[in-house]
Amino acid sequence: MSDNFKNIPYDPVIGQKICIKIAQGYELENLGDEFPNLDQIMLWLNEEEEFFQKYQRAKHLYSDILTDRANGIVKKAYQLLNNSDVSLTPSQRLAYSRMVIATTKWMVNRYTKPMSRKNIMQSDRLSPNQIKRVQKIKDWVDPIPNNSFRGEYVPQTNIP
Asked: What are the φ and ψ backbone dihedral angles of 35, each rounded to 5 degrees?
């Protein structure tokens, strides 16, 4: 945390304003001087479940905006491909075609998943490798295993 960090209680009104900014594409680090510093926001995200849920919805809304922008770009590229008045080189046609196909497939995949909390949270799940890494970090930070007694340190031998 920064040296000038001063913990302030969570304010739902400020939390809502932060989430609106996030949904508009602002980064947590660049919200502006009228908002708490990054350390405070991270603390709120970690401790306030309501704020965390709103923040996740805001990030999801922003991803919808980005999807709509990608859709607009693809539509323009598709129009260029179908416009006989525009002369494109074969490599340009191929690049546009690939972009249209790849983005369309991505959007179909995105929109065919039903909107649910499970799908929104799925990106937050850890893979088995990530779980192992997190466990290694936890073991490194707190090397005393749960089965130790009388405060004796017992080194763990199962970590490669």
From this structure: -110, 160
- The domains found in the chain, sorted by start residue, are 12-122 (1.10.10), 129-160 (no CATH)
Query: Rounded to whole angstroms, how far apart are CA atoms 138 and 136?
Result: 5
* Per-chain mean pLDDT for the chain: 74
Q: For 80-138, what is each residue's pLDDT tens digit?
A: 777 777 777 878 877 878 877 787 777 667 665 654 544 444 444 556 766 666 666 65
Percent of the chain with pLDDT over 70: 64
The full 3-state SS of the chain, as one line of letters, equals CCCCCCCCCCCHHHHHHHHHHHHCCCCHHHCCCCCCCHHHHHHHHHHCHHHHHHHHHHHHHHHHHHHHHHHHHHHHHHHHHHCCCCCCCHHHHHHHHHHHHHHHHHHHHHHHCCCCHHHHHHCCCCCHHHHHHHHHHHHHHCCCCCCCCCCCCCCCCCCC
What CA–CA distances, in Å, run from 127 to 65, 140, 143? Answer: 27, 20, 23
Query: What CA–CA distance (Å, rounded) separates 78 from 39?
Result: 45
